[in-house]
Every structure is written in C-alpha cells, then in structure tokens.
Amino acid sequence: MSWLPLSFGAPAVLWGLLALPVIWWLLRLTPPRPQTEVFPPLRILAKVLRKEETPYQSPWWLTLLRLILAGLVVMALADPVFNPRERVSTGGSALAVVIDNDWSSAPDWDRRVATAERLIADASSTGIPVLLALTSEPPNAEIGPFDAEAARDRLRAAAPRPIPTDRAAVYERVAGALAEFPGASLALLVNGLASGDDEAAFQGLLAANPGTVVWATPDRFAPLGLTATTNEVDGFVLTAIRAAGDPAPRSVTAGAFDDRGRRIADATLTFGAGSATATGTMTVPFELRNDFSSIALDGEAQAGAIRVLDENSKRRRVGLLSLSEADQSQPLLSPLYYIRRAMEPYADLLEPQAQDLAEAVPQLLDQNPAMIVMADVGTIPDAARERLVQWVNEGGTLVRFAGSRLAAAGNDEELLPVRLRLGERSLGGSLSWTTPQPVTEFPQNGPFADLPPPNEVTVTRQVLAEPTPDLAERTWANLADGTPLVTGARRGEGNVVLFHVTPEATWSSLPISGSFVEMLRRIVQLSRNQGTAAANADSRSASLAPYRMIGADGTLVPPGPDARPLQVRAGAMPITIENPPGLYGSEEGVFAHNLLAADASFAPIVRPQFTGTMTDMRYAFDESRDLKGLLMIIALLLLALDTLIVFWMGGLFSRRSRMRSRAAATTTLLAIVAFGAVLASSGVSLADDSKPGDVEAVEAIAKTRIAYVVTGDSSVDSISRAGIEGLNRFLVDKTALEPGEPAGVDIASDELSFYPLIYWPIDANAEMPSQDAISRVDAYMKQGGTVLFDTRDQFSTGFDANSASPATERLRDILGNLNVPPLEPVPADHVLTKSFFILPEFPGRFNGSPLWVATSLDTSDNGDRPVRTGDGVSPIMITANDFAGAWAIDASGNAMLPTVPADPMQRIYALRSGVNIMMYMLTGNYKSDQVHVPTLLERLGQ
Description:
The chain is α/β, with parallel strands linked by helices. It has 6 domains: 6-82, no CATH class; 95-221 and 604-623, Rossmann fold; 222-310 and 542-603; 319-525, Class I glutamine amidotransferase (GATase) domain (Rossmann fold), CATH 3.40.50.880; 652-680; 695-930, Domain of unknown function DUF4159 (Rossmann fold, 3-Layer(aba) Sandwich). The chain has 23 helices and 41 strands. The strands form 11 sheets. Strands 17-16-18-19-26-25-24 form a 7-stranded mixed β-sheet. Helix 18 packs across helix 22 (904-923). The radius of gyration is 43 Å and the shape is flat. The relative contact order is 0.07. This is DUF4159 domain-containing protein. InterPro entries: Aerotolerance_reg_N, Class_I_gatase-like, Double_TM_dom, DUF4159. Keywords: Membrane, Transmembrane, Transmembrane helix. It holds the Pfam family BatA. It comes from Oryzicola mucosus.
C-alpha cells in the first residue's frame, strides 16, 4: 500500500487491533434495563415470578461505535503520520550541512531552509552536533559545531546573497572541521549551477571521509539570466541565457525601467528547443532608450535576471562637420569616413544640410548633440562661434582633427585645448632628418590611460603645440619623441579635444587602427556634462562609493553594511560580498557593476563520485501531519457520545429524571449564590480604583499627538486642525513616526501633559485667557512641554518694535503673565537646523519671520529659573510665518491656502520645518551630542 501517504511511528502497537473481537464479545452483554412501575403492591407481587433472567443484547450500532473507539485509540498510540516526509540517514558523530545561498537560491530559498531544518531535526533526535556553512558568506563566518537549536537559529537568520558561490574556500573550511568528527554525515544542498572549481572543491571535501553524503538539488534547474544589453542604431538589443541542453522552447518578457521604476518598454525573448541563448530588441525612439535605468526579466526574482545601466548604455548624438568632403568615388579619402565607421555602433550621427559653417553649426546645435566632431575646420564665423562656445561651456564636447586648414588658421583659445604653432611638421620626408614616429604609452591623466598603446601606429605629419607649463596635463596621447598626438582641456562644463593628425590615413595610420575606435568611444563617454562615474575618474583605480545595489531577489535596494567602494579598473571586476552587483557612484554619475558577464553561461552541476553511501533528495517543505492528536480527539468525542447513549438507555432523560436534574441544577445555583454571600460577608471584594477620565487619558497617550489651542473661531481652529493633519501625513511619509489625530485642547480645562507640542495660533479677537489658564500653560512648560506661538502676521521686527499688529499685542499680553526665558532667533548651529532635515530657515505660509527659541546660554537648569529647558528642548517657540496655513490640507490632500510668495518649495520647507520641530521635541539635544561623532566617522570609513 505504498500509494497511501500514511506511516506509523510505533507500528507494533497496531497488534492491539487483534483485541477488537474480544472487545466486541464483551460489549454485546449489558444488564437488562430496569422497569419503572406504579406502586400497587398486589400487582407487583403478581408479576414477581421465579424465572431465569437472560442478558439483554447490546444494539449492533452501539457495539460498532465502541469498536471504532477502541480502534482509534490503538491507532493513535501507534503515532500515525499523514504524508510522511522523506527520512534521510544522518547518523555518525556529527552532521555537516553546506548550503549554496547565492543569487540563484533566492526564488526557492524557503524550500531550501525547510529541507535543511528537516536534516537538523533528524540530527537533533540523536543529539549529535551540527556544522552549518553557507557558500556565499564572508570567509570568516562561523560554521560551528552548534547544537541543533543554535543551528536552526543561524539557518533562519541566513538569507540569499546576490553574489556567486565560493565553494572552494567554504568546502576547505568544512573539510578541516570534519577532521575532528570521523564518520560524520555530510549534507550538500547545492543550487544546481556548476562553477569552475567544483571538481577540486568536491574532492577536497570528500577527502574528509564522511560516513554518509546527502546530495540535495532543486527539482528543476531553469534559471534565466541577462548577460548583455547593447544600445544599437535601430533599438536596444538584449541577450538572455539559460541552462544548456534544455529541450523545451521558452519565451520570456523583458521590461525596461527608468530611474523612477516606471516600465517604459518591453521585448520578448524566445529560446528555441535546445538553445541556451535568446536575443530580443526593444525598438523604441532614441530619447526613450536613453532613459533606460535597468532591464529585468519578468517572473525571475533573482539578481541574474536584471541589469542596471549607466552612461555606457546610452547612445549619444554626435554631429559631424567637414569642409573638404572627398569625391564619393573615393570614400576612403573622405575626412569623415573612418569617423563614421568607428562611431556608428554606439552613437547616432548627425550631419548638417548646409555647407556654410554659419548655417551648418547652428543646424547641428539645434539637434542637441552630445558631441561635435570637426574634421579640418579652420576659422569659424563669429555668429556660429559664439553659439558653439556657449554649447561647450554648458557641457558639450568638441573634437577637432588637424589638417591644412586648421594648421593655417590662427589660435582659438576657447575652441582649442592648446596653442598651436603655425604650419605643420613633416616626419620622414626626403628632406627631413627625422623618421615617422610611433605612439608611446598613454599618459595616466587622460581617458586612454588603461588602453594598450597602439605600437603599430606611426605618424608622418602633425600640428605642433606651443610648449607651455600645463602642456603635459593637457596631453592625452604622445608620440615617441614627446610631442602630443591628442590634447584635451576643460572649457566650463564641457571639453575641447584635438587630434593633431587628420581623420583620414594621410598623416598617420591611426584612423585605420583598432585603437582609433576605442579612443573615440572613450571621448563619447565624456561627451555629456554628467559623464560617467568611471570616465570622470582620475586614474585607473578610481574608487566609487556604493549607490544602489541589486538585491538577491532582483530588486534595487540601498547599500548593505558589507558593501565597500568599488575600485574601477581595466579588465574584469569580480562580484564579491564587498562589491555586490549594482550602481556605484552618486547622483552625478554612476557605474554599472552587473552580476553576469557578457560571455557567461549556465551549466548544471555534476554530481560528485563518492565510494560510500550517497543519498539523493529534493528540496521540499515538510508537509507531514501527525494524526495522533486528531485521532485522540475523535476518540474522546466518541467516548462522550457513548456516555450519552448509555445515560439515554438508562432512562436519564425521562420526564422524572429531567425533573430531578432541574432540582439538582436549582440546588447547585443556590449553593453558588450562598457561596457568594459568604464571600461578601467575609469582606472579600475586588477593588475598583478607576477614576473619571481614565479612558480618555489612555486614548490620549496611546499615540504621540500634536495639540492645538482652540480659540473659539471656527475658521482659525479648522485651519489649525487641517495643518496638523497635513504635518502628520508628511511625518508618516518621511519618518518612522506615526502621530495620532490632532487634539484640540482648551487650556483652561483639558490636561496638557499628554502632548509634547501645543500649537497656539494667536487670535486678537479671541478672549484673553484667564490667569488660571495661563498658570496651567506655565506649569506645562515647566514640566518639559513646548508651546509654539504663531501670530500669523509675519512679525520680524523684534518684540521691542514701536509698532505691532493686534495679534502681536495679544501675544505680548499673554507672555507678560508667563515666566518666559530669554529668547533668540534660531542660531545657525542650533539642533533645530539639523534634527532631521538641514534647514537654514523656518518658513511657513509666509517667509520673513525668524523662529524664536529659548537662548542656549546655559543648558543647566537652575533653581531660580521658572521654566526649565529639559534636555535642551526650548519650552517656547514663536513665529509669525503661519505654519498651520502652510501645512493645511483638505480631504483630498491638496493644499488649502497659497504660500506668499507662491513658491511650491516654500510649502515643502514649511513641512520640513514641522518635521524638525517634532524630531526636536522627541529627541532633545541628541543631534548635538558629540559622543557619537567618532563612531559615525568610523562607520563612514573616514
């Protein structure tokens, strides 16, 4: 009966089922049912006859019920398990569990953890220690041995990482640990993906001679990965891979996302039967392709299915300009021929319709190119030159090639990187003592620093630069005799680059070399004012801070604690724990560090050969269910049913029996009442110390709430409430604080100590608060609370001004009855300016009044100072900028009142001011505590 998903932990107990026939025989006999008769004595005596009584046979259904009950008890004692899980031998002196927790494990990580937990549970039953190692963890991670509970805790705390496995290093550590446990069991929970060092790693691990080996793999190895994304002329070309040899065709959709996570393009990639590679093209406009920030495969929640993009993936518009176009029958002599061939794969080329420079240059500039290449262009007309200079200063890149026209033109300080000598230099002619010069190694201060020098290139003619002190800094490529081949300089936000040779193969062989293509590509990468983080680097080993990382599930997340700056260099940069895949740099420019290389491939892992016992298993959840408790509950229910049947057959539920039951219930109720009376007479009672208002107090302190003073003017009070609601919503969006509903308080009667901040809009038409109410406010401020007075009249002339508004006069009257500390406008170094946001000022609906706080002369609380600051928090704040008016929102979340002036950012700054005030209320002088500065600097690596 292998088809039945049921097993027993103690199958020997099932022999008890043989006793069921005996139980059936015993249950057939029951005593006769007693008869109830009316008392007539003679009739009773007449019926009393001496005869042999025969037992009354039990009904068949009652017997069957009792047999079922007995069978259920026997089966329950046999420990039945429904859908029993696969049991694997984990004997020996210890159990070593090695799990691959790389990027490919993310989709079914929970299943792998459940499988490992089953193995650890089996080891726990025998009391052996557990070694637990993960192949994508730091090399110094602890692997044990642990007891079973500690191993489970570490397993549940583990998570997949977006990096490859390092089986060689981890297996070596596990092999060393297994040397202390001869004959231990080894469980290898692999990801199904082969790596280059698997064979040696397995041999080293199995050399520890484990007693048994458990080999666990996924049910189906079918990961997909993105290996290449290329922005071609006609569209964005994608390349995806899967495991080789998969016979089933498969289609997958890829989506392109911008920097805000919005999906802006799709493409379908189709794998043929047995094919390991699929390509697809996103045919979208040039401008839309340049907005791509990342590309991901749908339905693949792992880091290999996403690629982040930087400036290298964005195509530039490049304008081409020449005044000496060769005859079309001789294209190889065209000044722009080699430039077009070199730049077409990664740039969109533009050429003007007009031949006149005065019209051609504006035509190119109107199309917003990132770079303009001029082939032997000498003097530029003044009108076109002004626009060209402005374009360069705003971030454009101008690349110029030498020629006879440029050599004869005068120097242009703004559109040339260096000063040139008139004429040109000829090398290797019949009347020359010199020979053609080769190109030497590229200087370290230029964008070609990591390129190999083109030793095959020779130069026969060039334009020479005037020797200046900064010529070496502006030189990007040199000839063997030290003269510059390529020079470049910054002009405003842009660059000006000069090739001292022509763009066709007349003055040099550079245009027909492979280095020419790569040199132009590097310059194109610099052609935008933002550039790329790697291109703007100063050397080969540029250090870029982590910016946005790719999580193991394929989402973009902030950098983790293990992430370190990336050293950008030539060649492959491996994916490690310290340099996980993602974007490195800053908002000004990023460098994409992706998981899969362009030549990556997936291959299934090969099961190692082991001469001992080796067991295969699959990742699966533990779906077994213990039926012992369920069967015992059913047995108890049947027992209760049997008891009721026996009572019924015995006449318990007859009319007289029911009367006796009611009498008994009445007696029991009277006994309970009597017992309660005894307790009452003995003085035992439950104390009730609740007081009126306790419920309201509990509700008030359940959440942090901001209060406002109710003035009696409905328009003022509604703005105050709406303003605090708007601030609450902003606090929820930007901070971890989730305030409660705004609280309108009457300072004369309501309890004020429940609220850290009370907003008091001064209304000149409201009644003057009584002295008792002002005393309650004074006590509230002494106990650490803060009152924010807002006159809403943009008062900025100081409290001693000769003229004041009615609201300011009313504020003076109120403050005259309070013990107010000395006040000052918020200093630039006050904690209020940096408690959450960095704020130089605190605007509201108006922007002109400073925010007044208690003077921070002495932070200690003296006995003669009525209002104590309490941990550096000012007990009073005064403004005239109408904070609530700027914060107020309606039911739809729209602003209710305009700001003055009508600047959208002023409302944002007003809300940030509210956030800083609340953080200041709740944290005090925490931000000014210098004790934490060394720790923060150490964490930042400074």
